[in-house]
Predict the structure of 2,5-diamino-6-(ribosylamino)-4(3H)-pyrimidinone 5'-phosphate reductase.
Amino acid sequence: MEVFVNAAVSADGKLSTRRREQVRISGPDDFARVDRLRADADAVLVGVGTVLADDPRLTVDDPSLRAARTDRGDPATPARVVVDSTGRTPADARILDDAATTYVVVASAAPDSRRRALDRAGAEVVVAGDDDRVALDDAFSALSARGIDRLMVEGGGEIIFSCFAAGLVDELSVYVGSLVLGGRDAPTLVDGDGFVESVPDLRLEEVRRVDDGVLLEYGVDGWVETDR
Ligand SMILES: NC(=O)C1=CN([C@@H]2O[C@H](COP(=O)(O)OP(=O)(O)OC[C@H]3O[C@@H](n4cnc5c(N)ncnc54)[C@H](O)[C@@H]3O)[C@@H](O)[C@H]2O)C=CC1
Ligand SMILES: Nc1nc(O)c(N)c(N[C@@H]2O[C@H](COP(=O)(O)O)[C@@H](O)[C@H]2O)n1
């Protein structure tokens, strides 16, 4: 499976404010680029933190992109994936609408009542990992078995960290908007525990001005020691 991460950050590297409310960082051209990235994916993945904060739909909006997908036999919008260890996704979350299949990936310890509620709300519940936290390598294998070959990860910072930590990321694109959000508790592009001795090694492929910001595109080359 090919995995690419795309997110928008402020000039100081934040995904959002300390209130964790969705912030419009991208301009119209960047949102159009994101729509094209979604249209090229078999599924778009977020962590449950993003679902609770933003209530996203993660659909393809441009009618011509939707038509191109259906012309080649794909659903108009890629599948949506929520990584949600305990099944906290609300039954009325917009990501569970009928625009596309939505996989909610839970850990084996997720309560049966939550699994049943998600199933009733229209989610396809997938169990990955054998304890109380979703294991992403198992989750991605399960998604691959369901025909997902190209997976777009939109965030947030916790899930992006876990994707890098598991060595699952092939490409990273970051849109850096011209604003400063600040806040020691505001989410950043990569949160989690952070890397110390060995860190993901990026290869810069492209730098381009988009709207009033900069798009950075990287390949991921494995790991590098920090004392280089
Ligand atoms: N500017 C942008 O492009 C984007 C911004 N955001 C922002 O990011 C914030 C949400 O990000 P986060 O709080 O970091 O939440 P997140 O969306 O990364 O979800 C993290 C949650 O997923 C669950 N989880 C299950 N298994 C996990 C695993 N193996 N690794 C990590 N998490 C796992 C946990 O409950 C964890 O708290 C919001 O403020 C949202 O607005 C989110 C996406 C894109
Ligand atoms: N690329 C990008 N730029 C921004 O400025 C953003 N705030 C985000 N946020 C992400 O988009 C999701 C919402 O998408 P829909 O409104 O459902 O289409 C949000 O949940 C973040 O993942 N992305």
In short: The chain has one domain: 2-225.
